[in-house]
Structures are given as structure tokens and as C-alpha cells.
Amino acid sequence: MRGLICGPKLAACGIVLSMWGVVMLALLGIFFTTNSAVLIEDVPLTDEDTFKEAYDVYQKVGYNCFIAAAMYVVCGLFSCCQMKLNKKKEYLVQ
């Protein structure tokens, strides 16, 4: 079948991991853009950074989390398409 790259189990695993990645990275993006104090250890700061620069770094890290979440959405859509192609293949074989 044309376009079929992975099997049904791998597609299901991709869907589950994509959903988890989207939720996790979206929450991290929200927390980073709201300058959560708990995440200060995860922000790449130097000793010379001022508070304004620290807030800018928080925003950049939050933006990167949203970009990564969008990439997980694309991977999830790909996995859904693979799942549908697998279902279609099973229907045609019978």
C-alpha cells in the first residue's frame, strides 16, 4: 500500500507519545512564559545576566517549548494517518 511506513503498533505508540509530548511541552511553555520561579534551574543563565535578561531567556525557552509541542502535533498527525492507512489495508485484505 502506498504511503504506509509503519505498522499499527508503532502508529499507536506514536499517537500516545505525541499526546504526552504536546501536553507536557505546552504546560512547560506556559510555565516558562509566566516566569515560574520553580523552573529557574532549567533556564540557561550566566552570572552576568540581569533580571531583564533572565526574563528574556524565560520567554525564549517558553517559545521553544511551544515550537517543540507543535512538532509533536505534526508527529501525532502523521501517526494518525498511518493508523488510518493500516485500517484501510486490513479492510482491503479481507
Short synopsis of the structure:
One of its GO terms (molecular function) is RNA endonuclease activity. It is a multi-pass membrane protein. This protein is an all-alpha fold and 94 residues long.
SSE arrangement:
Blueprint: H1 8-33, H2 51-93
Number of domains: 1
Proportion of residues in extended strands: under 5%
Write down the overall geometry: rod-shaped
Number of helices: 2
Biggest sheet descriptor: none
Q: From the alpha-carbon coordinates, what is the Rg to the nearest angstrom?
A: 19 Å
N-to-C SSE string, H for helix and E for strand: HH
Secondary-structure-derived class: mainly alpha
The whole-number mean of residue pLDDT values reads 88
Give me the count of strands: 0
Which regions contain 5 or more consecutive residues with pLDDT less than 50? none
How helix-rich are the residues, as a percent range?
over 70%
Distance between the termini: 14 Å
Protein name: Ribonuclease K
Main location: membrane
GO molecular function: RNA endonuclease activity
Keywords: Membrane, Transmembrane, Transmembrane helix
How would you characterize the overall build of this protein?
It is a single chain. This protein has 94 residues and is mainly α. The protein is built from two helices and no strands. The two termini are 14 Å apart. The mean pLDDT is 88.
